[in-house]
Amino acid sequence: MLENQVAGAAIGAAIEVHRALGSGLLESAYSECLAHELRLQGIGFETEVPIAINYKGLVLDRACRADFLVENCLVLELKSIEKVEEVHKAQLLTYLRLMNRKLGLLLNFRVPVIKQGVYRVVNSL
After folding, report:
1. What global pTM score does this model have?
2. Which domains does the chain have, with CATH numbers?
3. 85-122 pLDDT, tens per residue?
4. To which H or E segment does residue 24 belong?
5. Which of 102-120 are b and which e, b meaning 16 or more Cβ less than 10 Å from the residue's Cβ?
6. Among 63, 69, 102, 110, fewest CB within 10 Å belongs to which?
């Protein structure tokens, strides 16, 4: 599955960023550095990807934004928070449904070891 390979590469990039910066910075710093690391590794991505919502004929073209869309198949949602809650996972699942994607990763950088901050979210479509 392509998504799993891309997820492995994205996690590797996040590990590299976290190893260099540590924990405790703002999400925006991790986002910029992760984008740079993905570029260095030759991994294709988009940032701040607009997500449209169609509600009973009302179309909201930019109702929300995904932090990253990697290789057009993996959605990344970045956080730098004390504790990941179920609502954060639900947010990513909603993004996956609206974007018609199967796999997303919630990456929380405010942890001692980044592997403790990686959460896989799957949309069964």
Report:
1. 0.94
2. 2-122 (3.40.960)
3. 999 999 999 999 999 999 999 999 999 999 999 999 99
4. none
5. bbbbbbbbbbeebeebbbe
6. 63
